[in-house]
Structure prediction request, 574 residues.
Amino acid sequence: MKRIYSIEDACIGCHLCEVACITEHSKSKDPIKAFLHEAERPIARCTVEEIDGGVVSFSTNCRHCDEPDCLRACISGAIQKLDDGRVFMDTEKCVGCWSCVMACPYGAVQRNLEKKKGNKCDLCPDRKSPACVDACPNRALVYKEGNQK
Amino acid sequence: MKYVIIGNSVAATGAIRSIRNQDDKGSITVLSRENRIAYGRPLISYLLGGTITEKKMAYLPEDFYAKNSVDLRLSAEVVAVDSKKKQVKLSSNETIAFDKLLIATGGDPFVPPIEGLQGKKKIFTFTTWDDAAKLKELAYDIKRVVVIGGGLIGLKAAEGLYQIDKKVTIIELADRILSAAFDRTAGRIVAKKMKANGIDVITEDTVVKIEGEGAEITGVTLKSGDFIPCDTVIVAIGVRPAASFLSGSGIEVNRGVVVDDRMETSVKGIFAAGDVAEAADFFTKSKNPMPIWPDAYIQGDVAGAAMAGSEKGYAGGLAMNSIELFKVPTISMGITNPQDEKKFEILTYLDQEKYQYRKVVLQGKIVVGAVLVGAVDRAGIFAGLIREKVDVTPFKGQLLATDFGFAQLTKEIRSTLFAPQGKVA
Prediction:
């Protein structure tokens, strides 16, 4: 399956992947509206990590594992592995127990505290390639066929 | 190939998927003693508390059994296993033949003999959907509840009852609640929050007699002599592997069904997984029952692979719990409360006012346990460090940081995880 790979040396720590992710998962899909006017601003599903003022920076994201630890830990059955390989979280079913947060070794499930639901990458099903990848100005995020490990 | 699975919860699910990964022809029969579809067992406290409806109890997509060609039989309780004839017997006397058998019956609540317990109506255990449903049904007639046992099940039951406005008292024999899953500090933080919500917690005491005439309960008498008035009692002392039906089968049962690292029992072709099994521990490799949800899935997965004829190693059971109690999220994993403290190094951060606590337990250069209370985000990174036995020396000083993440780890780890060699041009 196609996965997102993150190349640390190319990351400039601009956080545009997070902005693009929030925008894509907003109601309007418009960054200004999403950030300023919508009642519920989505939480970015990718996380840019930085230390030493940006000397190290890179974007972490869901690996859509072949054998997802999040799925194995999920007590409600909200997390499913779809036929196309995507690891999908059904937020309707999620009860916010954070078992996926406990289990994911990639730290790739966020907590949406307002809704009390887990939040994770869906690989942007409405797009040809994920919004974070398209937004990255230095091709630090690559979307291509590949294995998890 | 005829696969028979006794039990219909998470271990069975792991096994079904794993079998079907390799064998789409063999027949799979699932026998469940409950008259319920597969459900998220830990959800029963959410159901009791009214935070979810019955509709949301379903653990699997509706088409799961059809898609995987599974013959699911509910209310089918297995009473005996004949290892030689390779068949199981149901309570209806029907026999079902198997080539490969998986025992995934989970646990049964343990109810000790307590004076006055017999014949009382409102005494419950709290491990099944039916338990929660019965409690809900009688909720109008419940005012004060005594919960015996301050472990995870007892506390989740207490929380559910609290959410439907019942007055709850917890009686715990040990000197603190959550003594099995948590360390003292984390237990204290949760206890403090519970008391703030009006839950009475009594420690170092136990119920010696349930009082009341006929079927009615008027209260309980404690060992200390105290009397606690109540109309309902929940027994939540613990669960035991549900393996009693295996007597006479020749399958080795210690505390649980003893299995090797393929989840095979002492009888070839018969496997066990989940809370009923006694498999190797991640750290010591000694065999213990480990009633842990994700571990049950993994064991089911390993068993299913072996049943279908391939090998999948079992790394050993790693305890982990993510439980929110009274709005305090907690995650604990691995060795959280080492007995012999000299062998371990313990790092902690505590802000009791804000219900924040972090603890990391190190043995030499590797992390062997972690407890997070409050900010539990990205706890799984610790699970990864534990499982992969990563040398944390280079970033040991950062382990307690609330923004702890991959940036503090080595570049090598980051590239291995997020951009494996050869994957990216």
About this structure: The longest strand of chain A covers residues 2-6. Chain A touches chain B through 47 residues (CB under 8 Å). The two ends of chain A are 12 Å apart (CA to CA).
